[in-house]
TrEMBL record:
Its EC number is 2.7.1.161. This is Riboflavin kinase. Pathway: Cofactor biosynthesis; FMN biosynthesis; FMN from riboflavin (CTP route): step 1/1. The gene is ribK. Residues 232-263 are annotated as: Disordered. It is an enzyme of class 2 (transferase). Catalyzes the CTP-dependent phosphorylation of riboflavin (vitamin B2) to form flavin mononucleotide (FMN).
Length: 263
């Protein structure tokens, strides 16, 4: 995956400003005045100006300051941050949402086979995915739209593959997302999209692993169109007990008095 340009995570207030810049047309390019942005954020002009500086410093916007305002454009990294927020809201309000990424089968660098068969990874695949992958990764060249949308994977639960120490070097961690691979009328269910922390590929390549050689199982060749359906588990499927724990702290704020019914 390409190096991210951001150096720090901006705070939620900066993300709120980014959303307003996007809504005002900044996904392409828009003229923003700090006074107007401040109004929308219910904040001062100075605060709005600081938010824009933060967004620029983490690489989420590019801007050109002119006499009566500034031209602002949300960068790809900024759009990915907004899409991750969007994915969170979808998980909150919708169940079983599917992220569909589209692309074409392509050949890679011939290294996938090496990594997939290294014992430190192979043991984890067996234990955590429940199968021994075919030695290699099926590479999918994603469409432009899907390259933008893959940021939504950040909000989807993945099976973690841990980093490990080999004899002469360390091997990076990876995340495996359960997917269904669809081509024409055929579908293959037992597939994972593997996203290594360290990779030589850019965001436009998605690598898939499966128990079988998918080119044979689905009759795929270079250039064939495929759909990768990433199954999202909703929050309702994975309740976080911390959110519902009741406190019996005596110092807690008393509950509102119960309304008495008027006869
Ligand atoms: C499980 C797994 C672990 C990987 N770990 C590393 C790593 O530690 N360092 C690294 O440079 N690349 C790592 N890679 C990525 C490869 O360098 C490369 O980007 C990619 O897998 C090549 O695939 P291809 O031959 O299908 O094009 C890993 C890939 C996989 C599948
Ligand atoms: N589950 C899999 C994994 C790899 N493959 C293919 O197996 C070959 C070896 O994978 P690789 O990752 O080492 O090679 P490239 O993707 O770099 O071409 C490639 O032709 C992949 O497309 C497959 O068809 N199904
Ligand atoms: Mg490959």
């Amino acid at each position: 995956m390409a190096e991210a340009t951001s150096t720090a995570d901006p705070d939620p207030a900066a993300i709120a400003a980014l959303k307003h810049v996007g809504l005002a047309g900044g996904l392409t390019e828009t003229k923003v005045s700090c006074a107007a942005l401040g109004d929308r954020l219910d904040a001062s002009t100075q605060t709005a100006s600081r938010r824009l500086q933060t967004l620029e410093s983490v690489g989420y916007i590019e801007r050109d300051v002119v006499g009566d305002g500034q031209w602002v454009r949300v960068t790809d990294a900024g759009e990915a941050a907004l899409r991750a927020e969007y994915a969170d809201y979808r998980r909150l309000f919708e169940t079983d949402v599917e992220l569909v990424l589209r692309g074409a089968v392509t050949g890679g660098m011939g290294e996938g086979r090496h990594y997939i068969t290294l014992p430190g990874y192979a043991e984890q695949f067996r234990a955590r995915l429940g199968y021994e992958p075919f030695p290699g990764t099926l590479n999918v060249d994603l469409s432009e739209e899907s390259v933008r949308r893959r940021g939504e994977m950040a909000g989807i639960d993945a099976v973690p593959i841990d980093a490990w120490e080999g004899e002469d070097r360390t091997y990076g961690a990876a995340s495996c997302y359960g997917v269904t691979l669809v081509t024409g009328d055929e579908r293959y269910e037992e597939v994972h999209a593997i996203v290594p922390d360290r990779t030589h590929h850019d965001d436009d390549q998605l690598e898939l692993i499966a128990p079988e050689r998918l080119r044979d199982a689905l009759g795929l060749g270079d250039g064939d169109a495929v759909e990768v359906r990433v199954a999202a588990t909703s929050r309702a499927d994975t309740p976080e007990s911390d959110y519902v724990e009741e406190s019996d702290d005596e110092n807690e704020t008393p509950a509102d008095p119960v309304e008495t019914e008027v006869a």
